[in-house]
Design a protein that fits this description.
With 473 residues, the chain is α+β, with helices and mostly antiparallel strands. It has 16 helices and 23 strands. The strands form six sheets. Strands 3-2-4-1-10-9-11 form a seven-stranded antiparallel β-sheet. A hairpin with a 2-residue loop joins strand 5 and strand 6. Helix 5 crosses helix 6 and helix 8 crosses helix 9. The radius of gyration is 22 Å and the shape is globular. 55% of the residues are buried. It binds iron/sulfur cluster. Iron/sulfur cluster (SF4) binds next to helix 8 and helix 16. The site of iron/sulfur cluster has 11 residues, from helix 8 and helix 16.
Length: 473
C-alpha cells in the first residue's frame, strides 16, 4: 500500500561510498533510489581527506540538492541519509547525517533504526555533563564515542556500539575512514557493494543498481567494517545474536527490485500472494493489488487461484506531498487524491483486493468503499501478512499501538469496520515459509514482533509509552 497513507512508515535509508572522486553525486543518486524510506529530510556529508562538508535539508532528495548544491561537496568519500522522522521528531537539527566537529577531528553519522536504550544512555550521559544538540537517538552514539577511554577512534567506536540496544545500521565517516556497523540481530537491512574500485553501502540494493554497482553481500549482524584508502577491513564489535531481520522489509518497506540476503523482494511478495491463495477459498472475478507494494502479491495470488489479475486501482503519482501531513483527517483525504478505482475493471465484478498489511484500517475502509462505489458487487480483502497487533520499537512508525486496529479487534470485527465481504490474513507460518529465508528455527531469521509480540531484544522501560505497556508480552 502507499506508505504515506497508511501510517506504517520506514524511518530511514543510509548510503555510503568510499573511493570515488564523484562521491557526493553518486550518493545523491543512491539516496534517490532510497527515497521511499524517508521523505522528510535528506543529507550528504563528504570528505576530501582533510575536512568534512555537509549539505542537509528538509524535504525530498531533489528538493534538498537543487542545482548547484552538490558542487560544494568535493571529495572521494560520502555518507548520505534520507529521513522519515519518528524517534526524536522532525526539524532540521535532526536531519542526518549528524555532523560533529571537535579539535581531534570530525565525525558524520547516518543511522537507520531505533535504539531502545537511547533515553537510558542519554540520561546517563547528561549526568556526566553531555549536552545534546538534537532530539535524535543517533546523537547518543557520538557522545559515547567521544567519552570512551580508548585511544584509537576504531576502538572507541566499537566500545560505544557495544553499549547500544535495538535496531541500528550505521554508516559513519571521519576525514579519513568510513565505518559501517550493523546491530547484533541485523534488524535493519544493510548491504555492501562495489563500484569499480570504490566500496559502497546502502540500506537497499536498489541503490546499487542505479549507480551501476555490484552487490557483494549483506553486512552481517555485529559486523564492523572499516573502509579507507587501504581498502576494506572486516571486524566485529559484537558477536551475532539471533538473526531478526525486519519481516516488513520483505512484505512492504523495501523496493521490489531490492534483494535482502539474496532474496528478491518482488519474488518474495509474489510467493506471499501464492501462499495466501493456498490458505483461502474465494469465488471472484478479478484480483487487484493496492499499488505499489501489493501488486507483486496480487500477481502471485492470481497465478495460483487462476482468477485474472487486473489493474483495479491506480495511483496518481503527481499529487504533491500530501503524505507529510500528520493529521489522520488529512491522511484520509490523501487517499482519495492518491488512489482511483478503474471503473471498467471492477464494475459488476466480485473483486479480490490484495493488500500487504492493515495498520489503522481507515485506508482499507476507504479503498473498499471506493471499489464498491465504482460498481464492485463484492470486495474480498486478502492481506499478505498476519494482523499487526504489537508496536514496533525498531524504527518503524507504529509507536502508537492504540492505532493498530488488530490490537483490539477480532478479524471479524475488522472485516465489519472496513466494510469488506470477507477478510483473510496470511498466517505467520505461511509468511515465513513464503519469504524463504533458510536460517534455522521457526522464525527463520525474522523479527516477527509486531505480529507475535516476541521481541528479539530487550525492551527497555523508557521506550514504552504508557498505552503500549499492556501490548508488550
Ligand atoms: S516489530 Fe515488525 S516492523 Fe518492527 S522490526 Fe520487527 S517485524 Fe519489523
Amino acid at each position: 500500500m502507499l506508505a504515506e497513507l497508511r501510517g506504517l512508515n520506514e524511518e530511514c535509508g543510509v548510503f555510503g561510498i568510499w573511493g570515488d572522486p564523484n562521491a557526493a553525486q553518486i550518493a545523491y543518486y543512491g539516496l534517490h533510489a532510497l527515497q521511499h524510506r524517508g521523505q522528510e529530510g535528506a543529507g550528504i556529508v563528504v570528505t576530501d581527506g582533510h575536512s568534512l562538508q555537509a549539505v542537509k535539508g528538509e524535504g525530498l532528495v531533489n528538493e534538498v540538492f537543487s542545482a548547484g548544491k552538490l558542487d560544494h561537496l568535493q571529495g572521494y568519500g560520502a555518507v548520505g541519509h534520507v529521513r522519515y522522522a519518528t524517534a526524536g521528531g522532525g526539524g532540521i537539527e535532526n536531519v542526518q547525517p549528524l555532523l560533529f566537529r571537535s579539535t581531534t577531528g570530525s565525525l558524520a553519522i547516518a543511522h537507520n533504526g531505533n535504539l531502545v536504550n537511547a533515553n537510558h544512555l542519554k540520561q546517563h550521559l547528561e549526568r556526566q555533563g553531555s549536552i545534546f544538540q538534537t532530539s535524535s537517538d543517533t546523537e547518543v552514539l557520538a557522545h559515547l564515542i567521544k567519552k570512551s577511554g580508548y585511544s584509537s577512534f576504531e576502538k572507541r567506536a566499537k566500545n560505544a556500539l557495544s553499549l547500544l540496544k535495538g535496531a541500528f545500521a550505521f554508516v559513519m565517516m571521519t576525514e579519513d575512514e568510513m565505518i559501517v556497523a550493523n546491530d547484533p540481530n541485523g534488524l535493519r537491512p544493510l548491504s555492501l557493494g562495489k563500484l569499480g574500485d570504490a566500496w559502497v553501502v546502502a540500506s537497499e540494493t536498489c541503490a546499487f543498481d542505479i549507480i551501476g554497482a555490484e552487490v557483494v553481500r549483506s553486512v552481517e549482524p555485529g559486523e564492523f567494517l572499516i573502509i579507507n584508502n587501504d581498502g576494506l577491513r572486516v571486524e566485529r564489535f559484537a558477536f551475532p545474536a539471533k538473526r531478526a531481520i525486519c519481516t516488513m522489509e520483505y512484505v512492504y518497506f523495501s523496493r521490489p527490485d531490492s534483494d535482502i540476503d539474496g532474496i528478491n523482494i518482488h519474488t518474495a511478495r509474489k510467493r506471499l500472494g501464492k501462499e495466501l491463495a493456498k490458505e483461502v477459498q474465494i469465488d471472484a472475478d478479478v484480483v487487484t493489488g493496492v499499488p505499489d507494494s501489493s501488486i507483486s502479491a496480487a500477481i502471485g495470488f492470481s497465478e495460483t487461484t487462476g482468477i485474472p489479475y487486473e489493474l483495479g486501482l491506480i495511483k496518481n503519482r503527481y499529487v504533491g506531498r500530501t503524505f507529510i501531513q500528520p493529521s489522520q483527517d488529512l491522511r484520509e483525504r490523501g487517499v482519495k487524491m492518491k488512489l482511483s478505482p478503474v471503473r471498467q475493471v471492477v464494475n459488476g465484478k466480485r473483486v479480490v483486493m490484495v493488500d500487504d498489511s492493515i495498520v489503522r484500517g481507515t485506508t482499507s475502509r476507504r479503498i473498499v468503499t471506493m471499489l464498491k462505489e465504482a460498481g464492485a458487487t463484492e470486495v474480498h480483502v486478502v492481506i499478505s501478512s498476519p494482523p499487526i497487533k504489537n508496536p514496533c520499537f525498531y524504527g518503524i512508525d507504529t509507536s502508537s499501538s492504540e492505532e493498530l486496529i488488530a490490537s483490539s479487534n477480532s478479524i471479524e470485527e475488522i472485516r465489519e469496520l472496513i466494510g469488506a465481504d470477507s477478510l483473510t490474513f496470511l498466517s505467520v507460518e505461511g509468511m515465513v515459509r513464503a519469504i524463504g529465508r533458510t536460517d534455522e528455527g521457526p522464525e527463520a531469521g525474522h523479527c516477527l514482533a509486531c505480529f507475535t509480540g516476541n521481541y528479539p531484544t530487550e525492551i527497555y522501560g523508557d521506550t514504552i509509552l504508557p498505552h503500549q505497556k499492556e501490548l508488550v508480552r
